[in-house]
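Hi R.,

Here's the chain you asked about this morning:
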Amino acid sequence: MRPLLAFAMLIALAGCGRIIPQGSVPPPVVTAPVITAPAVTAPIAANAVLAGIAAGPAFAALAVDDTDARGALASFIESCPKLLTRDDASGLTRREDWRGACDAAREVPEGGARAFFAERFTPVQVGDGRAFATGYFEPEIVGRRTAGADFTVPVYAMPSDLVRAKPGDFPEDVPAAERTGRAPLGRYDAQGRFVLYHERAEIEAGALNGKARVIAWAADPVEFFFLQIQGSGRLRTTDGEVIRIGYAGQNGREYVGIGGVMRERGLLGDGPGKYPGSMQGIMAYIRDNPAEGRALMLLNKSWIFFSEVKGDGPLGALGVPVRREHSVAADPAFVPLGAPVWLDLDRGEADGLWIAQDTGGAIKGANRFDTFWGAGEDARRIAGGMSGRGRAYVLIPRAAAARLGANPR
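And here is the predicted structure, written out as tokens:
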């Protein structure tokens, strides 16, 4: 999504990921616990190989059922064109390693998916193998193609003046939170000086008028705020049209998780006058306190731009549709995008075989994953409360495992 922002459910509001409500205004209240990610420290290892590779168990020891294997196989086949043409930043595989498995995948007979993975792949452990997984989904909010009295929130495509700074044009006053090691995003003003791009408050005040195409108009600014954190979603019009939008870019400004701010201010919790520590509770506070809620949202300077997406599913960072219960976001420095991943967690619904097809801003480091749950009320409920810990194994072609000396235990 973005990539799909990548964004981890409820961690977004806690400070580093993504959460989105589902449905029309107001959404039903479904309490989900606040999820707190493990403390993020500067990674010592730059990729999977440097983090350390160990042999995992034989595939036969993994509890992969036929249904799980069939779904993973379908997503793997969709990923193959990318696997064969893109470089693997993890250091685990080379393009040619995938060719045999991709060719064979298209010929797997009915009922042969599990045998296919067993024959073609070797599970390996990256780093210590201890996994942490959250969840995300595809929200659906009310919108339409044209503006109107009840449709006033613009869904912008990429603006024409958003660029990266040229060498030598970097401003000296870039806040630490907005430094990424790359040339910063921004714009050149009328005097030809590079400046940071418009932040959320400026965009809401009309700074993009005439500079960015409006794809559609949303009905509710609160719902759209959370859809931006998620990075993709659907707009359902009153006449039944579904407009699917996906991440196209970002303004380069600081992301602030408003849930973390609310906790610091004592607004969330179990005491009198406090709101539940869930995405529904946070939305309820914003709706009950419009002025304070708007001020909270404006603290998040980040703004997401979209493109209209055609097809049967939101696109992940790999450029293929992500699928419910089969697609997972991972850090491509530690998992080849397109590779199968086995998760064995303390959340049984997330156990099984997934295909790494997406990334996310909060999905960093070895064994950090974000599971995709599709669209709908149950998807929102599962993703909103997903916080699983356990073990992870990355499945790589046998030739790659042999080259790395990671033969199965």
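One quick note: The first strand starts at residue 53 and ends at 55.

Cheers,
M.
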